[in-house]
Each structure stands twice: as C-alpha cells, then as structure tokens.
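Practice problem: predict the structure.
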Amino acid sequence: MLKTLLRVGAWLGATLVLLAAGAYLYYRSLGLDQLPKANPQATVADLAFLHNATTQKRGRILAVVSSTGRGGPGMKRAGYELTELARAYYVFQANGYEVDIASPKGGKPPERIDLDDMGDADYAFLNDAGAQRKVADSTALARVDASRYAAVYFVGGKGAMHDLPDHPDVARIVNDIAARGVVGAVCHGPAALLGVKRADGKALLAGRRMTGFTNEEELFLMKDARTRFGFLLEERAVAEGARFVAGPKYIDNTIVDGRLVTGQNAWSTWSVAEAMVAALGHRPVARERTAEEISVRLLATYYRDGLDAARAEQAALPRFDKMLVLMHSVVAAMQWRAADAVNLQRLANG
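Answer:
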C-alpha cells in the first residue's frame, strides 16, 4: 500500500510539474511582458488629440462624481472611477468646453484607480495641476448654478449607486439642463437619473432609450449586488419606463436619444463624451483611437459576426490591446463558454 501511495504521489507530482511548466510556456508565448504600457509621467502635452483642440470657447460642462467612499452592507469600497472622469474631461476640453466638477458633499471625492485600466489620458489627469485642483475642491451639488452649463455628465463608479439616485439637487440640475442642453452618463452614472421627475410628474426616463451597467455585468462581478446596492440599475430603469438597451458584457455600447446620452460601461467613456459633443451640435475633434478602443471594436465584431470576421478586421488594425481580449477569454471560460474562450485566445494571439 505504501509503495502504491508513493507511486501515485510521484505521478501526481510529475503531472503538476508538467502542467505548471506548460502554463508557464503558454504565458511566455503570449508575450504579455513585451506589451506597451501606459506612461505614469504622461502630461497634457503628451495627449496628441489635444493638439487638435478647437480655439472656440463653447461654454461649460458639469461633471458629477459620487461622494460615497464606502457603502452598503459591510461598507464595501465605492467611490467614482478615475478613468470615466479623466477621459471625458479631456474630450470636453478639446472640443471647447471648460469642465467643472461637482459632488453631493463637495470637497475631495473618493476616487477609484485600477492600475490595469490606466491609460496616458488618465495619468495625465493625475499629473494635471489644474484638474487636480478642481477634484480636490469639487462643488457641492446644492451650490451648483445649473444655468451656467450646456451639459451635465454623470461619472460612474459604485459610489454613484449610493448617493446619486433620488437626489433633489441632481433632479434640479438635470431638469434645468435637459430643457436646453445635453444630459450624459456612463456605467453606473445613469443611476443619477433614477427618481428624476419631469415637470409633468412623469419619470425622466419613461419612454427613453438608454443604457447603463447591465444586470448581467453587475451580477457577474457581484452576486450580492441587489443586497449591496438595494437595486440593480437596469431593473430600476426599466421599472421607471426606460427602453433599456443592453449590449454584450464589457463592450462599448453608447445610446443617444435626442439630448440624452448614456453608456453601458467604462469602455463606453470615450464614445459617450464624443456623442455628447455631437449632441451639443459640434463635430468632435479628430482623435486617434486607443489600443483599448480598437480591441473593444474588435470584440464587438467577434460577438456580432464571429471569429472569421474579427480576424479579417484584425488584419487591418495598427494595434490592439491583447490583455483586454484575453480578459474576455477568461470571462468566457468562467461562464463555461468553451468555444468563445478558445476563439478569443486565438484572436488575442493574432
């Protein structure tokens, strides 16, 4: 018996060593260590699209972020997503709009930074003294004069689910701006529109096409999301009469309904900001797409048309974000979508 156990143990040990070696060799074959990385020292001068900025002064846009650093049962981390503020901030600036930052409580709001998601624009925002002064001293919503703004943009992040819905000053600002300007929001940011009533007493979202972080996206990441937030954004929007448009998980999906512009997730930030500029009546200034945006477009093609179409499109692309494509492969594997997991690995490898 002892000899048998030793033989089995040796066989299992050898198998684990071979699996580990195979996994290491596969990891090395992906070339992830050689992928270009964002520059933590990036400045505004490094953002090429700002060199194309219009010289026209077109007005002001109010960016609203959450003041909730922790919330829900267990007081889990919340805050606003830096990337969803920074990227839109510079799109608005490039297109002639000064950006002010507000939050329910005012002062410095709690930000969330995921280093894996950071790009040059995000680091530039952190290194931009003027932008950081605005963040450090955000205006309390109660003090906002909505008449000064051509648009309002609600930044996502889990904090938005805690302190932006049913907020009286959010409703006041939205109703003022919606009557003459543009209302935009991304990811969890559309939660700010929940509970907003028009002058006729109907829900602002009733009958409107819109999107936001979907039930599928939320519950994939947090099984206890209903308990944590008290509601799901998609469900409550539908309950208020919204015509909610859900796209594939973690893919850019920006919906424009007149002067209401909403984006499904963080990967919609660039397109939401540029769609808001277009809704304000201007053609957005030229901007080279980031590798992340190119990958999101490639993934959209895959989910819509299949692997062959995606690979044909990939052949004409200057670059793409391999890590993002691999992330979708991992998500597929976690959901037991074996074919997608394999196909997306093939797509990531070019």
